[in-house]
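Proteins fold reproducibly. Take a tokenised chain:

. . .
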Amino acid sequence: MKKVYTLLLCGGLLTASSCSDFINLEPTHLLSSSKVFGKLEDFEPVLSGTYASMRDLYSYGLFSSVMPDMMSDNTLETTESLVNYKAVTDWIYAPDQIRVAEVWRFNYLMINDVNLILQNIAQFEASNLKKANRIKGQALAIRGLMHFNLLQYYAPNFDRASTAPGIPIKLNPAIEFPVRASVKEVYDQIIKDLETAQTMLSDVDVAINTNTRRSRIDAATVNAILARISLYSKEYARATTFATAAIAARPLASRAQFPGIWTDANADEVLFAVQFNPGEGGPALDVWSPAINRAQFDPSTDLLALYDRTNDVRFAAYFTPGANVPGAVNRPTRVVATKYQGKAGARDGVVNFKAFRTGEMYLIRAEANALNSQPAAALADLNVLRAARITGFVAGTETGGGLVTAIATERRKELWLEGHRWFDLKRTTRVLQRVNCRAGVVCNLPVTSAKWAWPMPQNERLANPKIVQNDGY
């Protein structure tokens, strides 16, 4: 088997060099970078293609969107499931499984795309520096974000100074066989990319997004990405700083506007959304497929019990009682996950995935302050968010451990099916217990289980012996 990095170049349309290390004759049907990139405008299609790739199943089409909820205690697999992902959702994955290999491969493919931009754009910067900043800044931000998305699944822990094996850092589209950098080294590179991107995206030729279209990464998005990463790495002062900047850029949606976020009627409080169009699937079709009324995963009963069904605007925006779902069979006592039902009145599951939004930023700042001896500020943010979502909410008075627990509970409610729950448990308690667990579903994952980190893909290790395997595989 060829290594994934080899396949990225030798199997792709764009390549920075020939595959002469493997084939002496340079193929005439491949384009070199010098022929592809003749002017600054030539980088735009590659950047657009990378954003389009984010819709893939192994990116925000499933694994960086709703899969972390499917793997957690937020959902339960139903008897309608096609069991396509059972090895993942029941934590019985192995190095030779396709899901493990494809998440790895596809994220590095996107990293390779932006590396082609970053390796070749310098020679054109002088022609229009602000335009180059706009393109290069987005490429750097995507590279940092994709490395982080990989770190979430494959690293054994998220400690900022951890010397545990993380993932390979890929900065060059050329064929190479890198080792797994430490978690600390991966963080160092991610932060370097994002902070450089932040500087560039603050000095661009035209606005990257509008108030109603948030499909690209701009300076506000980079603040949000850095806030999330800083929370994971336990750099709480930085998390507070970046979350505050993101909040200033995109205020919370009102209760009246909040439901429209999920049908793409508005982009209130959205910092970055992966755009899905008809024929391109949707982020949650493997949870509930509205066109055929198949719910492969139901929201868990303990999750549903956390909501005020009458006064919390999130309940009606995220769920629908089974009796009210058109064409539903045997659903009267069930609640269906309709958060991603479709745009406007459509029921096709095609709707943009909100990868970063302001609700998360309030919770990041609240958690960071609570864990950084700033309980009053933490409680204030938590109450602001709850008041924005719940009609008639009476300000809470939680303190100490109760405050930290309340923030975690609110994250579970606010960010349901947005790709957080599995990683939240991994970075905090590693306690996962599914309640009312059905027969045939694995119900709990021990704190000490090796399954909290995915294995290194077997074909990657066969091609590159430098890639050490995670413990327990």
Q: What stands out?
A: Residues 129-154 form the longest helix (26 residues). Confidence is low (pLDDT under 50) at residues 1-30. The CA atoms of residues 57 and 442 lie 24 Å apart. The radius of gyration is 22 Å.
